[in-house]
Amino acid sequence: MAGIVIAILVLLLFSTFLGLIMSNLFLANGLFQILFMIFIIFSPSYFSMQSLSKFFQICLLFNPVTHILNILRSPLMIPSGFNIKWSYLYLIVMSILLFLYIAKRVKKTYVLEKIF
Fold this sequence. Notes:
By secondary structure, the protein is mainly alpha-helical. It is built from five helices and no strands. The radius of gyration is 17 Å and the shape is globular.
């Protein structure tokens, strides 16, 4: 259950981060779909990490989808190429950094109309 919550939180924060850094929303619509498809294709969802060379295993560790899959697969006893503690650490640090950037960016945003 905790893995699902962390996965959804990380994906929401990452999507919000990408939305804030893009200025052209029309371009962002297509770019987000391509970016997330690349994340999914270059993650160990279709293949095993153990069958790859050490260089490609290290490259996969920079992909957040790899860590999300590692957390979601651990209760199912599906072996991954590394310890689940590193996945939790990576995703928590990434979530904190994304949240700090989003909070800073939203605080600097100028709104023409007052909400309350």
